[in-house]
Amino acid sequence: MRKAGDFNEQKKALRFWNYLKAKGVDSSLEEDDGEWTVWVADEDDLQIATEEFNEFAETPDDQKFTTATPLQKPQKEEQDPKPKGPAQGFSEQNLRDRWQKRERSSGVLTMSLLITSVAVYLLSGMGTNKEILKGFYISLQSEGLTEVLNGQFWRLFTPIFLHFSPLHILFNMYWLHVLGSQIERLKGSKFFITFVLALALFSNLAQFFMSGPLFGGMSGVVYGLFGYVFIKCKFDPGDGFYIDSFTANIMFGWFALCFLGVFPSIANWAHAGGLLVGLAWGYGSALRWNRGKR
Question: What domains can you pick out in the chain, each with its CATH number?
Fold first, then answer.
């Protein structure tokens, strides 16, 4: 997805977005803090969308923007048709090839989370140095958030950087890269960091209140990222996210096995808290789009 332009009025944003649709340009509309952004799905359409946006900015009331009617699809779309049929009320998109062609490098914030997690893992003696671990736990008390209430607010978030085995950190860092890179690239840094902090907060609190303070790991955040991408793929495919069904089944299967106790010493409530927030956030976003409010 590439940005075509920003608007501070919903009416103008919708008018321009409808105009692009009429020209056969696959695009989506997103609202963030009162600002509306039009995103172009196909990078090949970016130049024409940018030129049209510049013209629209000068004469938004021009007749061509107010009376646009759908035009014939470009030849390239006839050669590579998209799947037909409804996708639960949302426009169905062929996103697999588009996603596979995109760069897979981590975004700046995603890479920062990766580096911080690895650094903490090494500094803590791969999760064995109890003195260092104490500074990252949400609390050192089994009841109440004494340290947080005394001003150590960072403890609400820092457990996500703790990992206790090579498999633990490898699993979490791999999925942080795969899922976090998608979200940061498509939704932007501001959304991504806000989302990660929300996932960390809810997953850490869920684990603390259900199981106590001595836990750590990025998996609550990872499951939140997964839940968001999964729902967006299912209900809002035009936003450009992609995850295949096999991977989704693996993630849900691992979640279930851990909750059933097949694998002990797992922060299951962090998984659950993060997943629920991610699913709800993704569905809310898709629902706003489906109702034409985004």
Answer: 2-81 (3.30.70.2350), 108-290 (1.20.1540.10)
- Residues assigned a catalytic role: 219, 271
Closest listed residue to residue 195, CA positions, set 167, 244, 229: 229
- 291 vs 186, which has greater pLDDT? 186
Q: Which residue has the higher pLDDT, 189 or 40?
A: 189
| The CA-based dihedral angle spanning residues 223, 227, 229, 235, taken in that order and rounded to the nearest 10 degrees | 170
**Per residue in 278-293, is it b (16+ CB within 10 Å) or e — as a string?**
bbebbbebbeebeeee
Q: Which of 238, 233, 228, 236 is nearest to 93 (CA)?
A: 238
Read off the pLDDT of each residue in 195-220 and give the average, rounded to a whole number: 96
CA–CA gap between residue 288 and residue 29 (Å, rounded): 10
Residue 291 is classified by DSSP as: T
Residue 172 neighbours by CB under 8 Å, 6+ apart: 117, 163, 217, 218, 219, 222
Q: What is the mean pLDDT of residues 132-136?
A: 95
Q: Report whether pLDDT(280) > 80.
A: yes
Per the listing, tokens 């013209």 go with 55
Comparing 14-18, 88-92, 266-270, the range with the smallest average pLDDT is 88-92
**Residue among 91, 24, 81 at smallest CA distance from 52:** 24
